[in-house]
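Agenda item 2: zinc ion complex prediction
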Amino acid sequence: MRRSGFGLGKIFGINVRIDWSWLLIFALTSWNLASAAQALHPNWSDGLSWVLAIVGASLFFGSVLAHELAHSLIARAQGTQVDNITLFLFGGVSNIQEEPSSPQKEFVMAILGPVTSLIIGGVLITLVNLFAGPLGALAAPPQALVARLGPLSTLALWLGTVNIALGIFNLIPGFPLDGGRVVRSILWGLTDNLRQATQWASWLGQVIAWVMILAGIASAFGARVPLVGRGLVSGLWLAFIGWFLSNAATQSYRRVVIEDILDDVSISRMMRENPPTVPSNISLESFVHDYVMRTDDYGFPVVDGEELRGIITLDDVRAVPRQDWATKSVGEVMTPRERLITADPEECASEALDKLTRHDIRQLPVVQEGRLVGLVRRRDIVRWLRLHSELS
Ligand SMILES: [Zn+2]
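Presented output:
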């Protein structure tokens, strides 16, 4: 899955990306904070309220990043490859390749994110307590409490509360949230069966999501729900988060089912045998006119005689300026054999799908004893799965 957004740079060697949806959250958070500050501190200037709000939203961003970095750094310390961290609508996603290799590792990796958030939150609130006088219980009426705080303490109190909320939200035991991963790692440890554990954790996630949706709707219609209270906006918000969780749980469950099916099928059952191939010495011009335009294929294995030389895709051609198409050959532009990612006909289809996703490519040449025997495309696997589910 490729999300739209932009890169921000590297931290500890991990690429940090921001999804466009995050800009919306940033604007909403700033606006929300500014109006809250103006309401609670009428004596503050608009400028001060807005500066605080924007600094607050940036530090909130930093808090989510710290949470994700905790997951990623421990994953890397455990020897798992971490590609990037993407911050999006509901927080962050660490793109940690491959599933963790043991229940203990998954437990530690999952729990460290929320623990980091809770520690940051705890430290900030303790600091406010130390420097701005005792706050009393957090349950005290917030208006009266916040009204006597200065700008810096207000910011720290808000940020502390947000971090604690972030930690608690992520501990909700619905897979794929961190809390759900903790549950899964425990079930996995008990049953020694990752599939089964994922299935149960997803079901639990589904149940929790529906409780949130129903509680949210009830609260929106005026029922008093414990912890949530009553109100249209908070009720709808809760229902929305429940809906989001339910989707995530369904998706992760479906992924387990699909992996289960594809695990039992070899790639030779869904590959295309004798796919159209291209010789390496023709020009890009004739490649486009004689091959690409005549088929609905995107990539072609490059074969000279019997020997597989590489693969050429439409993207490779597009990278070459139009006026050079007549002079450049397929062999000069293709991905050469040594950098090619290939599959074995006996390989299971889930492994092939994993390669396609991980390297973000559309097709895999299937090679046996150095010879090209077929081509498997992403859509061949999707089509096979659809037929499989229609027929059974
Ligand atoms: Zn997390």
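Discussion summary: The chain has a mean pLDDT of 83.
Owner for follow-up: CH.
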